[in-house]
Amino acid sequence: MTFFTSPLLAAVPGLRHAFFTRDGGVSEGIYAGLNGGLGSNDDPAHVAENRRRMAAKMGVDPAHFLTAYQVHSPDVAVAAAPWDAASRPRADAMATRIEGLALGITTADCGPILFADPKARVIGAAHAGWKGAFTGVLESTIDAMEKLGADRADMVVAIGPLIRQPSYQVGSEFVERFVEADSGHATFFIPSAREGHAMFDLGGFIRMRLERAGIAIIDDTGIDTYPDERLFSYRRSVHRQEPDYGRQIHAIVLEG
Q: pTM of this prediction?
């Protein structure tokens, strides 16, 4: 089973994390590999086995390998105890101070952001696509962690694999939405070869939001999901006219 890690998070004692790839799973066809997406049309038994394997790698029971029902919101769920698939909260971020509860973010181009305060022993995880990042999911995660005793000045944050600027073409109305909110957002767009379109730097936008929120220690894997066949990509699946797509999970847990 192959996964990416952040050197900065890996240096934190008593913490385990992984940006999982497609490697090491049992799914087949367009979902081939380690598809963890409960919302995909993959065989549920395959998804369950894939998630079991990821939970084992994180050192937790499958029931303690938590994901939310993601809706591209700025909402955060605080995990005080395990929940099952049927009762998982509708949210795009999670925070906890409970050891042994793995927080998992499901993505297929959006940004998985993992947070840790090594001193307070509080962790968080956020699903930051353009909409979540734009509407404040990163700031909401930081706020939720501070309510659990963390301090943003002590946080270490890692940005995982996501669709990067060379692969992320958007229309003029997308650019206008960002620039109307803040003229400085224009720096996250460069011209596209296609007239009336631009290329968006989601990773740079996420880093800027984190820095403005007071986060000083930020690690970025720099990995682009679209061209990297080791990872699932929603946009790549659309361009290939595939009927559905798999999702990878990225997780963080406080070890007991």
A: 0.98
